[in-house]
Amino acid sequence: MFYYVTKENVDYEKADPGSQLRSAAPYYDDGQDAPLFLWNQALYVIAELLTSNLLHINELDPIRRYLPSYNRPKRPGRYSAFQGTATDLVVQVVLIAESMRLQAMMATYGIQTQTPHEVEPVQIWSSTQLVKVYKNLGINSKLKLTGRPLRPIGALGTSKMYRVCGMTVLCYPLIFEVSEFYLYRDMSLLIDDIKTELQFVSRFWRLSGRPTVCLLIREEHMRDPQFEEMLDLFAMLKKGHCDGIKVRIGRLQNLLSSSCMEHLDFMNNVGANNLEFEPFKQLEYDYSGYQSLTDVPKASVYTEDIINIENYQNKSTNEIIQTIRNGVGLFSQAQLYGLLLKRESFEKEVNGSTIREHLTTLYHSAGCLHYWIAVRYCSSLLCHTVDSISPFITTVLVNGKQLTVGVVDQKETVFDKPMTPAAIHSIMYSTIQPYNIIQAVLQQEIILYCGRLIGTNPDVFKGILKIRVGWVLEAMKLQLKTEKETKMVENLSPYAIRQLLQKILTVKEWAQKEQISMFQKRQLEGCWCRVP
User: Taking CA 83 as the corner, what is the angle to CA 78 and CA 88, rounded to the nearest 5 degrees?
Assistant: First the structure.
């Protein structure tokens, strides 16, 4: 039995496909020729060839599409190929030190690293450079194809070696990018991200060859109080494992032969002369370096007496500028510059520099001191946005949850569909910043952590249909109050924020152990809008 378009309606069907009714094939008595159905005829011919031993069954599908990817025949080629899940996957790790003195200091602790000069002719690139290269993929003026969009390269993409215009390139992951947003300054968060990165690569790597992850060590990392934890991580990697993952640390030249190599041949039509590549540069110093961490000047713990900004609302601009000149703390300065920004603009000059320049300087100074409340305040005034926040919002949405942003008791905006980074930026700073300056960036942090957590452990979000980020911050404040923590949530480090988020999200697991009251538990669950 089959259905067809009658002969008199064929022209109408061609003009408007799908418009004509299909007729069932008629039954014919013996002796009458039935119309030929090509599919049935093809199956009949194949069956005849097989039964006559003129065709082998494997010849029906030469590329073995009926087999799993790792059982299909592989052609040695210039491009990465899928091989299926490797049971004994080893993640290769290359440690790159920013300078020779950093390398010497790391060697004191038994951690062997390489500098960018030592890995030559292999170049170390930022993933943003690879994004520029991939922009040339698929460009066709006749078809009006503009190439790959300028989207970031993920963990799997930066775990491959690349041949680009005669150069061999290894890219370091996004977590090592020095961006305008402040998250990269938190060493504990970076350590956690490195472990997550290795776990992700180990779990989802399906290509032939081993993944090669480049871990970048910068001099500013040494001054962080948590740098010893980073050394502990490197020591664990040196032993060949990290949270159950097999790893191998080695010199890049020794790992090339077992790496996954991708040849970007489309760049041959573009040429290296048309693009300016900026490889990671080694810092040069006359002095050979620190011998141990005790020689490195540490960032001091910063405190200040915070002014009450309400007392300055009715003061004149000159009085505010004079207060800044008299010398106040970093956060107080940020608040005063924020007040000036409301009245004037970014280009208003104060003490020989614009407000934008003053805020940028304060932002970096507070970042070096890990004074997070001032960092977040300046970041919000400068309208910073978390890198690649859009994919994390999408991750939350595809897991069946909705997101709302906004200050408690004020207007909220619902994210119920994927949005562009520009639209997200506009919503964050129009919905949140007028009512709470710091929460404009703090709520971005919460979205980022929720997106990562729901991607790796969706079960902890069971019973939550809508994540109201403003109320999540309220839950954090309640928990800090319960723990009698003196620090405000705005002054917690990004890593502490993430840990606190995970704790209040899993309140059922520890409520009885820590003996919190049923009322406190219901408060936390209510802030998450969790239903039974």
Answer: 120
Question: Do strands 261-263 and 161-164 pair parallel, antiparallel, or not at all (unpaired)?
Answer: parallel
Query: Is residue 161 a contact partner of residue 208, using CB atoms and an 8 Å limit?
Result: no
Helix (H, G, I), strand (E, B) or coil at 521: helix
- Asked whether the beta carbons of 496 and 485 are under 8 A apart, the reply is no
Q: How far is 400 from 38, CA to CA, in rounded Å?
A: 45
pLDDT at 30: 58
CA atoms within a 13 Å half-sphere pointing along the CA-CB vector of 127:
24
3 state SS of 483: coil
Residue 383: which of 470, 448, 441 has the closest Cα? 441
Instruction: Pick the closest to residue 161 from 172, 152, 150 (CA basis).
Output: 172
Q: What is the mean pLDDT of each run of 10 residues along the chain (532 residues)?
A: 81 90 71 66 88 85 70 64 70 92 86 91 90 87 85 87 90 84 84 89 87 90 81 91 90 91 83 73 66 56 80 86 86 90 85 88 88 92 85 89 91 88 90 92 92 86 92 93 87 91 90 88 90 78
Smallest Cα–Cα separation from 111: which of 250, 225, 242?
Answer: 250
Angle between helices 469-482 and 494-505 (to 10 degrees): 90
Residue in this structure with the two tokens 């089959």, named with its chain if needed: 2
Task: State the Cα–Cα distance between residues 87 and 68, nearest whole angstrom.
Answer: 15
**pLDDT score for 85:** 61
Q: CA torsion sign, 154 to 159 to 160 to 165? A: positive
The C-alpha atoms of residue 179 and residue 197 are separated, in whole angstroms, by 18
- pTM equals 0.72
Q: Where are the beta strands (DSSP E) in 30-149?
A: 91-97, 123-126
Burial state string for 164-199 with b = 16 or more CB within 10 A and e = fewer than 16? bbebbbbbbbbbbeeeebbbbbbbbbbbbbbebbbb
CA 518 to chain centre: 37
Number of Cβ within a 10 Å radius of residue 64: 12
The encoded tokens of residue 13 equal: 């069907």
pLDDT for res 381: 93
Neighbouring CB atoms inside 10 A of 388's CB total 15
Give the phi and the psi of residue 246 in degrees, each rounded to 5.
-80, 125
Beta-bridged to residue 97, according to DSSP, are: 217
Instruction: For 207-243, give the DSSP string.
Output: BSSB-EEEEEE-HHHHTSTTHHHHHHHHHHHHTTEET
Tally Cβ neighbours within 10 Å of residue 18. Answer: 6
